[in-house]
Each structure stands twice: as C-alpha cells, then as structure tokens.
Amino acid sequence: MPADLHGLPITTASAEAAAAFDRTLTGYFKYRADTPTHLAAALEADADFALAHILRGYFMLLAFNQNQVAAAREAAQAAKKAIGTTTPREQQHLAALEAWIAGDLDRTIGLWEEILVAHPLDVLAFRLAHFNNFWLGRPAAMRASIERIESKWGAELPGYGTLLSCKCFAYEECGDYASAEPAGRKAVEIDAEDLWGTHALAHVMEMQGRTVEGIAFLNQMEPHWQGANNLAHHLWWHRALYHYERREFEAVLDLYDRRFRNLASPLTQAQPDLYIDMQNAAAMLFRLERQRVDVGERWVELADKAEARIGDCRSAFTLPHWMMALAACGRYATGNRMLEAMRAFGDGRETLAPIVRDVALPICEAVLAHRTGNAGRAVDLMRPVLETMHCLGGSHAQQDVLEQLFLDAALKAQRLDDVRRLLVRAARDKPLPLAQRVGYADAEKALTQ
Ligand SMILES: [Fe+2]
Question: Does domain 1-135 have CATH number 1.10.10?
C-alpha cells in the first residue's frame, strides 16, 4: 500500500496520485497558492482516492465561507463511495470532515486529536486542529496539541519546520515569548518559505514592540513569499501594524493599497472576500480612523462584500469586521439585517451558535452603536463580553481592534472606570508600556489628567 510523506498508509492504486497528494500536503503547510492544483492532479490520477476527496472538502471549509459548504459536502460524498476499502485513519478523517460540515467543531477537533494519538505524524490532522483551535480562541489547546506529539517527531522528517512554526505561534499566543522565539527561528532556518514560522515570529515582535526589527525581519523574508497564498497579505498587514505603531500612517496606507488590500492582485481577484483579507483591511481602517487618518472610500468595497455575505457565520471573528465596514458606510439598516441573521444562526446547534449569539452579537451591536454616536451603549454592550471575546478566535494582535473599539467608546462616553478597566486588561495581555502603544497612549494620558 502506498504511503504519504511520513509513511502513513494512503489508499490509492496510483503512485502518481500518492506523489501529488504529498505535494498537496506540503503546499498546504507551506501556504502555497498552487496547492489546489496538486490536489486536482491527485484526483485526476485516481478519482477514487478517498483521502484526496476528504482533503478537497477540508480545503473548501478552510475558506470559512457558507457558499463553499455544498462543495465540501459533495467532496465528502465522493470520499464515502471509496471509503469502505480505506484505513481506519482515513475513515476518521471522513468523520471529521462530516462533523465540520455540520458545524460540530468540538467533535471535529476531537477526531483529529484522536487520529494524532495513534498517528502523531499525521500532519494534516495536526495542522487542521491547530488552525481550528486558533479560530476558536483556544491557545492552550494549540499548545497541548503540540506537546502531545512533539517527542514523536524528529528533525529529519519533512514538515518538521511546520511543527516548530505551530509551536512558536501556540507559545506566543499563550504569552510565552521566550519559548516561542527559538522554535520560530529554527522553523525559518529549516525553510525560509515557511510562512507560518515567519508569521509566528512577527507576532512575537509585535507583542514585544520590536517594530524596527519586525519591519527589517519581514523585509528580509519577503523574497520567500513568491507563490504564497493569502497569508502573504496577512504578513504585509503585520508589517503595516509595525508602521502603525511608529505612527507612519502613509506607509500603512501604501501597504494597504499595494499589498494586503490590492484589489487588482491575482490573489484578491481569486477570493475578493476571503475572511482573513477582510479582517486585515477592516481592522486597519478602524485603527487608522482612530488616529484621525482619512481613509477615503476604502470602506465601500468592504461593505459591499460584507453585505453580500449576511447570514454567513462560519467565521465568527470576521463578523465585527463586516459590521465595521457596514457601519462606516452608514448602512445601518443593512447592519440591523445582519444582526437579525446572526440571531437566527445563534438559535442553531453548531459549535459557533452560542459564540455568535452571546459574544459576536453584542460586539456587532456595539460597532453599530459606536458609529452612530451612542458610545455609552457600545460600552454597556461590550463590557460583559470582554473576558469571553477571545472565543471569536484571532490572535492577541487581531483582538486588539476590539479592545480599541471598547476603549474608544469608553473615552467618548467619558466612562473613566471602563477606560481604566480596558487599560488594565491591555497591559496584562501585552508586555509593553501603554505609553508606547499608539491606540492606548492618549487614553492613559487622559486618565492621569
Ligand atoms: Fe497574525
């Protein structure tokens, strides 16, 4: 029986399909834009290759787009036809895909972790669990997942770098920068094209306020992003975040237009409303406006895309970003329609339903209230969810925009207790003096006056 790049049996009669499958896995963990081409080659060589169909389904769901769920379901059906002759591991992957399609993320992650108990080298299960834990705001689960399998891996294995990248990111999100950085350094030393390692290191530098070093580091790594997928946009966003902290707002806007929100780029044209790109863009415009930077008409295309996706709650963290765009364009009725759709989703049984209902909903309402001049209401809506909003997913660097929303509302409403509350929280989560942080320095000054 053929095996994948780590020696795990895969059920296919075609050596060509097996080789293309390995290229797909490698492309996936290296964030390469041509990954779907390799997967298509695998399925072309063997149309009954169950695990390749499952992978196709996984890729559909990784877009966090309700419109792609039907294609994921179709991939699961295709996998099912051939699943009878496959290994228990492949069958567990099909069960995980089906649970993910149904929106049962706890069961999905549980199945991947079960696979990893028996097959700690299953990089697909590992990476998918890492990623989905991240988008549920579970950094401790990300770290535990690594710690369970780390000793089973060796530096000689293909993909060892990606394990270290994930280790760096998990530790960084847990606030353990001293453990995170060496893992990330090693990851990019093994493979400079490892975008996740570069990204994890960018986070360490962001959290520690190493802006000059961060800009130089990303500049140095940028030649290795040729052929990368949208994670390259997010890396440019990180670079823009360093410039933002240095009050270099022209540089931020330049990166916005030429790099992470370049509407003419092939990557953006292929997926104009991809969740991570929408988050990057909206979060940066919101931050810039707080600094009284004129962002022109940039919100409009974001609002158009948000409006077209109303009712899609597959990415909980994207929802406040969509609402920011709608509110910035004065589309309040549309915003209310989105709230209604979120309420309907919140009545469902999916893992994200209570998260959308109890956390995303009040925050989205707060976004609207804040933009319509009702800052006090925005504060009241957000205060109860400050300690649970990490469940929306996203990193500390990304969640920062929600903290800034609350802070801005508290300042506008002159709720000094709430300003203080947020500053205490911000100081706890980021080991950097508030006076050195653009979004927080003025608030700190206001409190001491
Ligand atoms: Fe990031």
Answer: no
